[in-house]
Amino acid sequence: MSREYSITYTAENTYEHAVNDAHWQFLIIPEQNNSQDFIGVTFENSLNAMIEYSINGYGFKTIRIHPKINFHKITFTASFQLIKKDINPFSFDPDPDISKSYSTIDELNFKVDFDSFLRITHFTTLPKSNTPLFSFDTSNSIFENLKALNEWTFMHIYFKANVTDVETTLDEIIEKRHGVCQDFTHLFCALARENGIPTRYVSGYLHQGNGYFGDSQMHAWAEAYVPTIGWIGFDPTNNLMANTNHIKVAHGKDYKDCAPLKGVLYTTGRNETKHTVKVASQQQQQ
Amino acid sequence: MFSSYQLNHDLYDEIFEDHGKIKEVYKKLFDIYGEHSIRDYVNLNEKAKSSFFNQGITFQVYDKEKTHEKIFPFDLFPRIIDPKEWKIIEKGSVQRSKALNLFLWDIYHDKNIIKQGIIPMELISSSANYLDQMNGIDPAGGIYNHISGTDIIKHNDGKYYVLEDNIRCPSGVSYVICNRTALKRALFGVFNHYKACSVTNYAENLLDLLETVKPNGVDIPNVVVITPGMYNSAFYEHSYLAKTMGVELVEGRDLFVENDFVYMKTIRGPEKVDIIYRRVDDAYLDPLEFNPNSTLGVPGLFAAYKKGNVTLANAPGTGVADDKAVYTYMPEIIKYYLGEEPILNNVHTYHCSRPNELKYVLDHIQDLVIKPVDEAGGYGISIGNRLGKDEISLVKKQLQANPRKYVAQPIMSLSVHPTYIDKSESFEQRHVDLRTFTVLGKDKEFVLKGGLTRVALQKGNLIVNSSQGGGSKDTWVLKK
């Protein structure tokens, strides 16, 4: 069984004073991968400015637009169609040799190859403390520990919209114990990396048909690398493994590498941006 | 003229032997200068200075509160390097540039030098100049550091040592050429007694070598120089290089990217650009990829680069290799990639990131120079034997708070050269170094036969950077 998705992303930007010159870059196109078959994209903007497709520094598809007129308001609408194969997040064999996996993650070659996703970044810096927040139990497999970390993060932080923003760092999240998907994901990444597991921040869409937490915006979750298995998706906001409802766009070290919208603008005064995301699905027979 | 010249025997003098005998290569020059009085020299010096003012050859010095515009003080007494010594410098500069280029390729691809434990991983993973986005990119011709500036000194043992490899946007080459022009104007008769190699061929060689790394499928490449603008300290040089290469000087706003190609706005309409000699730092190159607040760059430039549609010289991310901590591994880097012994010496370096070396540094701070690993232009350097008690405890605190940020080296005694000093109206010994300029192209390289001899104008001062009040001398490399 697989699902066909149609996703609509809209952004509406309004400016107090006219914008003379603007460049936008969207990182919102679903990735083509083993479980995602990309069908198509349409992108429109209210100014009918020319659209360009490109690839960013991390290899993900972007949409760029550069209107050549002055304006106060612009809206963008992108629609994507794709087929998501049914994935069973548990479809791998249990780790046959637990201690070997722990020694693998300790090898220099492994650390060099996964350096980017082991690094502590601005958003994955844990506050200094004498007792680690979450330590792996090395008598259990790495996968079991990651599942436990996923649950721990889910239990430790309360989902609360509009109390944090894209600049919020982990010390505040840990102290106040609330946040949104981005904050859950940063905390998960930081703690997994602290335990030596390469972990990447994933941005994408969540099909919310089943009442999962999300906020009609883009969603975030994490992928952790487990020796002999590969990258596995964890959604700490919902205490889930990434599954057929998770549609991936991009990954990076943290939010900064995956920001869905980047703009370079020449204007003054106040501005306002509204995003909405709609994910609709249809079950397909194979 | 030299009657009042005081020879300090603790210092290595470039023109006098220990017992006061003049060195062979300087004999003729010394004799000619000897026929004149110091008054004649003072007049000539004034003439040369005004020539710099008139040409507008100035630079900016950044201070805590404000910036100042200055002329680069120029000394009419040239430095002469004999062909045998030059051969070593030239070979050594090329060797280092090539090794650094291979190092950059490796750390942006397989990272073998780290996997084999030759250099520590932290050098990359904790370097602010390592660009993840460069991973896996194959720059045209395999070249990252097209232009390198190698800072070399002569120690009191008479040997050359490299202090720094500058491979971000090394500046100073325009002064080499202007110094030659000014000197020839003032002292044509003297210059003619020597057979010195030309330095005015730099721009044509730079253009020639840049063209060897043009993007695939381009026949005759369109080259431009991009500058942060007229308020940049090296703006004069940017405009000079563009002019002498016969290419356009542009700012970010003069370029735009469309469908991953770079274009220049001209009165005849857009013109495609293939090679950019960029004098804008990595962080400011492309606001969509790096610092989003940059107004100096070109939105979309990095995507065009990644696609191979434009060449950037130097490549983004080269800064990771001119980190002062990487410098300390240069002997290993040269051996690893080239299988050769280093031709030019490295100064022994203590890594404050290693606890036992940090301890040594803290205990011997008076005998050491402390340098931040990621600052250029002589900013943030502390020389141990010049520090007062309070300054020492401040430096110690900084070292302990952030050891990775610092390295320490023994205080090197830079050689001295007779330099005309306005205040005393006579020649005095002043410390000098030498910056050489090496250009790498595809299977081709060029070293400017000359270089920038920088002079620390304050007595006893060892920091020669122009931003720290240094001057310069014309540098003659003699033909064989």
Give the overall average pLDDT of chain B: 90
Largest interface: A-B, 23 and 25 residues
The gyration radius over C-alpha positions of chain B equals 23 Å
- The CATH class of the largest domain in chain A is Alpha Beta
Estimate what percentage of residues of chain A fall within beta strands: 35-45%
- As residue ranges, the low-confidence spans of chain A are none
Q: What is the number of E strands of chain A?
A: 15
**Assembly type of the shown chains?**
heterodimer
Report on this structure.
The complex is a heterodimer of chains A (286) and B (480). By secondary structure, chain A is of the alpha+beta class. Chain A folds into two domains: 2-85 and 259-284, Sandwich (Immunoglobulin-like); 98-257, Roll (C8orf32 fold). Chain A is built from six helices and 15 strands. In chain A, helix 3 packs antiparallel against helix 5. The longest helix of chain A has 15 residues, at 142-156. The radius of gyration of chain A is 20 Å and the shape is globular. The mean pLDDT of chain A is 91. The mean pLDDT of chain B is 90. With 480 residues, chain B is of the alpha+beta class. Chain B has 14 helices and 22 strands. In chain B, strands 3, 4, 5, 13, 18, 19, 20, 21 and 22 form a nine-stranded mixed beta sheet that branches. A four-stranded parallel beta sheet of chain B has the order 7-6-11-12, covered by helices on one side. In chain B, strands 14-17-15-16 form a four-stranded antiparallel beta sheet, with helices on one face. The interface between A and B is medium-sized, with 23 and 25 residues.
